[in-house]
Amino acid sequence: MEGKSAGAIERQSMEADIACVGFGPAVGGFLTTLTHAWNENPADPAFESKVAPGLPLQVLCYERADDIAAGVSGVVTAAQGIRASFPDLNPADIAMASRIKEEQILYLLDPVGASRRPWLLRMVDRLLRALSATLGVRDEAFHLPWTPRFLHKGGGLVMSIGQFNQWVGAQLMASGLVQIWPAMPVSEPLFAENSERNSNKVVGVRLTDQGVDKQGTPQAGFVAGMDVRANLIVVGDGPFGSVGQAIDRRMGMPAGHDKREWALGMKFVIELPEETTLEAGTVWHTFGYPEPEIFGFLYVHPERLASVGIFVPSWMGDSARTVYRYLQHFIQHPALWRHLKGGTLRSWGAKSLDESGLHGEPFLVGDGYARIGEGSGSTNMLAGSGVDEAWTTGVQLGEAVIGLLREGRSFTQENLAATYEAQRRASWIERNALEAMNARNGFHRGFVSGMMGMALAGLTGGRLSLAATVPPAHKQIKKQRVRSLNELKRREAAMLAVEDGRPLHDALMSARGWPEIAFDGKLLISHQDTLLMGGKVQAMPGFADHVVFRDAGLCIHCDDKTCIAMCSGQALTLASDGIPVFEREKCVHCGACLWNCSQAGADGSTNIEFRAGSGGLHSVEN
Amino acid sequence: MSNQLHIVVCAGIVPDPLQTLEPLMGPKGPGLKNEMMLPAVLDPWAVSALYEAANLAAKNPGSKVWLVSLGPKAKLQQVMMTIAQKVSFELVAIDAPVGGFADAHATAAALTDAINAIPGLEKTKLLLFGGWESAARGAGVTLQLLGERLGIADQFMGVDEIEMHSAGSFEVLERVEGGKHQVSVCGGAPAVLGWATGNLPEPRNNPQVGMANMRTVMPALQKAKPATIADNDLQYTSASLPNQQRQTRVVKDMSADAIAQELVEWIGAE
């Protein structure tokens, strides 16, 4: 280790062979592959460190969250990649994991009358109600008689990513090869400075400064973020990680590629009533309610636990879109409430999903780095699957790295492209991604055409799909029709409610005719109480704010304030001067603000910057 | 003249208090629902002791800090990845199941054996640190019992500050009723100090400290001796959470007097 001066700040520097950014399923797959190979033959000279000769590879992983189990996603996954890594995998070894027993798709009618349904859907609802006895419509829900192949996860698992991460992480660290450091956000990649040829070579990462104020100004106890130099940087920091973002800014995106489609997923983990008839492994996919654009799910874990949640997509262009209140209405839909009533909220979580698929794929490799996982565009939105894909991209990189180490080849763009990228292109990840890449185009024309387009792509293996021009996420937010008197009245009611101290999202929903939530203190609780009851939010002091508004003037003149309505943790509130106020202590790092800002600067970037930050949600039941 | 201290910090791991903790009665007595899947943290009270120990060691060159921790290996390993970034220490790991409500006598016995086996530890330089209270579900007397087993007569509880004197004696501030401190002067090591919160902030995460600690943490975990914590036929009749209820209201423009009045009424009603 050595001290080096970077500008006015003295920074320590450290060398490693491989440094990973973020610990999720993708990096879990990468490190598992690496440790399995090392465990087979620890004396293999390929695994001798280049930076510490005589020792095994020095492999470090830095994770922003305070614990590797502080994940925020319950999943249903086909798990083919995960099972390939763990052929003897027994779901009983992983808390909250279960084999899928039953998979169903439900179309949910609107029992409330507040849903913004197109006329065609209203007609469908009437028809289904009229023929309910014949079609078996029960509790305002129509169970589709079959699950399309592209959605089916047969033989897969229902899991908690928090528990899965904990299970994987414990094995990795026990191996002795890998060190996973939680509560250590990485602020940016380090690029080589030597020559023009190497100007895009990534040579390390810089950890985040500590002991600073909200603006990042050093205070008492300042500790400059260390520079960790490594021969390979594995970028697995998700769809809006600071390292991935910085590399995209530096390298640009492949021609025609952009991250334009997003969704915010939010879910409750609910302890079901004792008399529940839902069995572990039950999987429901839903659509149609609370809004046509909002897809939902119910996954049943062992021990009477269920993950129940919704996804609010960017193509739901409504500027007043929100999630928490919609989720409360979702769980009260008669088809779900029949099973959930009397349950208790145990946990809660939220996360942005990059739904751009191949359209949002960045350059997968470069000199000194490789991209894996969701941030590399691996999520398949036709199948509604991301964990297994992310895991598998990590495995593929792991296999490539092992091969390069054994052949004594360096981690150049050419070598990584010829191994990792080539393997990924030839695998089921790419085949399925090609099927899915245009499947959701139709949603940019409307819900009905979206469903038709999805079915078309799914049933033809992606050969047929609807064409669409997908605007950037901030342009998908439709401006309110200020000429509409009703809309003006609604917004005025919402703003008055905000002035009265009520959250914006609640006020907007109430103003639109959604019934107030009858809190029961167990399952139906206020958003604010959820932050404390169902997975607590933590923010270690001494870090700068990671959500930054670039130009306050743009915020003042913004009528939409979608960032506030969509904030999962109510960490954004409206100040009297019209500028959103960010409270780091309430942020769950869902990333929704990044793509829910309707204002953009001259460079096309939205007015919100999402930087590296520490803390987030403490909940392992997610 | 500096004092070369041998500071042993006893800090157990406990389920993260930020999680939903739900007591239930199992076949082996009271425990927590899904306890093994909850993430663990170093006991928040004992963490203060660890930070104070590191601070004291830094002020007294030649001193050394051991962290003695008891728990399942996998959980210990997970906790150490966080705590090892904070301060320098050498880990002494005891591989034992934790959960339920451990008997303080049995826990103290296991800790005594582990401390007596620390190579190079000199009792004449020993300061035994721990938490005054605990987020574990023990009886809160483990540290005192451990001191007794190690034959240490000078014991201080609720400590907020220690100041070393040049001749090896030290002054201790212990919390007493009324928000005051009792000031004592101890002739020197060995002594037991059960820490309250201390006065130090949580240290920043330092990757260098973490890497340095890992050189001893991983081997310590690998050679951790399994221990059994006997229940000594203890029987528990019930276990319940404190009766806490939180009510949130948003009230604008409330005067300080009105807030004070409401607080008085609330306290009176409790």
How many separate domains make up the residues of chain B? 1
- Report the major sheet of chain A: 9 strands, mixed
CA-atom Rg of chain B in angstroms: 20 Å
Order of helices and strands of chain B: EEEEEHEHEHEHEEEEHEH
Task: Determine the structural class of chain A based on helices, strands and strand pairing.
Answer: alpha+beta
Strand segment tally of chain B: 13
Whole-number average pLDDT of chain A? 90
Overall shape of chain B: globular
Number of helices of chain A: 19
Q: Profile the largest sheet of chain B.
A: 9 strands, mixed
> What is the fourth-level CATH superfamily of chain B?
HUPs
- Structural class of chain B, by secondary structure, is alpha/beta
- What is the rounded Rg of chain A? 24 Å
Kindly report how far apart the N and C termini of chain B lie: 53 Å
Strand order of the largest sheet of chain B: 11-10-9-12-8-1-6-7-13
The shape of chain A is globular
Question: In percent terms, what proportion of residues of chain B is strand?
Answer: 25-35%
Summed over residues and divided by their number, the pLDDT of chain B gives a mean of: 87
What percentage of amino acids of chain A are in beta strands?
15-25%
